[in-house]
Amino acid sequence: MKLAVIANRVYRRGGMERASAEVFSRIAFTDDVTIIATECEIENGHLRWLPVRAIRRPAMLNQAMFARSAQALERAERYDLIVSVDSAARDADVVIAHFCLGIFTSRFGGLRGGSSRLRRLYQRVAERSLTSRERGLYKSSRLRGVIAVSSGLKRELMEEYGIEDSMIRVIPNGVDRTVFHPAPSLEAKLALRRELGLSETSFLAVFMGGDWDRKGLADVIRAIAKLPGTELAVVGGGNVAAFRRLAEGVGAGSRVHFAGIQAQPQRYLAAGDVFACPSRYETFSMSGLEAAACGLPLIVVRTNGLEDFVEHGVNGFFVETNVESVREALARVMGDSELRESMSQAAVRTAARFDWGDIATATREVLETLAREPAR
Q1: How many CA atoms lie within 13 A of 262 on its CB side?
Q2: What is the pLDDT of residue 114?
Q3: Rounded CA gap, 295 and 272, in Å?
Q4: 127 vs 82, 107, 135, 152, CA distance in Å?
Q5: Mean pLDDT of the 85-96 span
Q6: pLDDT of residue 77
Q7: Per-residue confidence at 288, pLDDT binned at 50, 70, 90?
Q8: Fewer C-beta neighbours within 10 Å, C or N terminus of the chain?
């Protein structure tokens, strides 16, 4: 096959960016793959990158400029399939869906803007504009099929955009277990903590990701404030100043460590005791799966994707989106070493089901099938 993949960014950081890198770097060994993106950091001689220039802000203008430029590059050559990662493209033969902006906007519009009323208002306007573009992509007569990362996301796409069940295949994200795995021993875990500047004696919760308001970081900070002997490592980018003020205001300022965006986030996961990320909305949660691969019990909300691999009381706990529910789950894992160990082992077994090689193979098979089918 000759494929053109339109994506804003493709690299081994973030969520959909990393998923695209993992899948298409593997497919490129057997097929002709062209990445059309603003950034591409895949070291693979079998893959070609066509760079797209677009301003980064504001998001509405960025997306419009990117889609227009990407479409011009895509139409300059002939491909068997045009693949859009989420709504990066104006139209495409296949969409690999990691998010449903329409559903998110209707339920949580403005949440990603943070606490500022002006930023929340802007975020609502931006989300409505981007949802309109997303709707147009899924309504395109060119569309042959959709790959959704979870069964829950599939349901949302059918509900929001009226896509037929038969047009959507579910293929989850994966994890590289050569990178994400438990520390080989307690001594190795403690050594990691020393290297990272973390306490060797405290119970360590790890939060990983961006979009901190959506992912419930405030609930985790308030929860550990009520649990003496507990510390929190926050891995990822966000409004550090605002959340540091929150931590200091609830008396946990010295126990919350903002690590920022890390090239090797697996080091923090391997150093931790539990993964806590009570996100309001997810479609799969790669960070949750990576935490499981590192042997961390998962404290999460029952949302899309997570409901596919988290077993309540076995490899983690489902919690409500409030501080007390998060605190109770943390306290249970913290106070019972036998439970913590059994959950750790179960989490590692869970992650073993999600190998990137298998996922790339499944994706290629779907794309090959769709390449033989006519558009609607």
Answers
A1: 18
A2: 67
A3: 9
A4: 25, 12, 12, 21
A5: 95
A6: 94
A7: very high
A8: C
For residues 231 and 115, the model is more confident at 231
Same domain, 281 and 191: yes
Nearest-CA neighbor of 280 among 308, 320, 312, 239? 320
* pLDDT in the model for residue 375: 62
Residue 127, pLDDT score: 82
123 shares a domain with 69: yes
Structure tokens at 73: 């590059």
Q: What are phi and psi of 272, to 5 degrees?
A: -90, 175
Stronger pLDDT, 109 or 90, i.e. the higher one: 90
pTM for the whole structure: 0.90
Q: Is 7 within 8 Å of 17 (Cβ atoms)?
A: yes
DSSP 375: P
Residues in the chain: 376
Compute CA distances 104 → 112, 123, 214, whole Å.
10, 12, 10
Assess whether 164 and 191 both reside in one domain: no
> Tokens at residue 51, please?
């760079």
CATH code of the domain covering residue 306: 3.40.50.2000
Tell the burial category of 236 from Cβ atoms under 10 Å away from its Cβ (0-12, 13-18, 19+).
buried
User: Going by C-beta distance under 8 Å and a sequence separation of 6 or more, which residues neighbour residue 313?
Assistant: none
Model pLDDT for residues 328-359, shown as the tens digit of each residue: 999 999 999 999 999 999 999 999 999 999 99
Q: How many domains does the chain have?
A: 2
The residues, ordered by sequence, that sit 6+ positions from 274 with a Cβ below 8 Å of its Cβ are: 203, 204, 205, 206, 296, 297, 298, 299, 330, 333, 334, 340
Which of 7-21, 76-90, 274-288, 316-330 is the least confident region? 7-21
For residue 81, give the amino acid letter.
Answer: L
Domain-located, residue 376: no
Closest CA to 144 of 160, 117, 168: 168
* pLDDT at residue 324, as a whole number: 97
322, 219: one domain: yes
